[in-house]
TrEMBL record:
Coiled coil spans: none
Name assigned to this protein: Transposase
Record organism: Azospirillum brasilense
Transmembrane segments: none
Range of residues in the leader sequence: none
InterPro entries, per the entry: Transposase_8 (IPR002514), Trp_repressor/repl_initiator (IPR010921)
Amino acid sequence: MTYQRVEVITGSEKRRVYSAADKAGLVAEAFRPGVVASEVARRHGLNVSLLYRWRRQIEEGQASPSPEPAVNFVPVRIADAPPSIPNDKMAPLPPAGTGIIEIVLPSGHCLRVDRHVDAGALRRVLAVLERR
């Protein structure tokens, strides 16, 4: 009779977080002439594809490989009724269920955007309208 080995893993492994300096150092080590990237990855417990991704991000000129997403929170209020903006200044309401976000600024300006809005363009428009 033969026995098979069974390994029981308890808990969950947490995702490792690497600083930009660590990533740059590992990429530099892995892509030196004569070095095999997969051996460097194995030695550091990484998947070799991660080294290639970090190298591509560095070559594309990103300030840091895999930058953390910027998170900006703004207060949100769910209104029971539409804001009191004169009808002549309001655009017609879109059909229900189209995923429209309406932003009403303290100045009275109202913007409606859908999920396809370019975040950078929206940021610039909001910056201009907040100054008025």
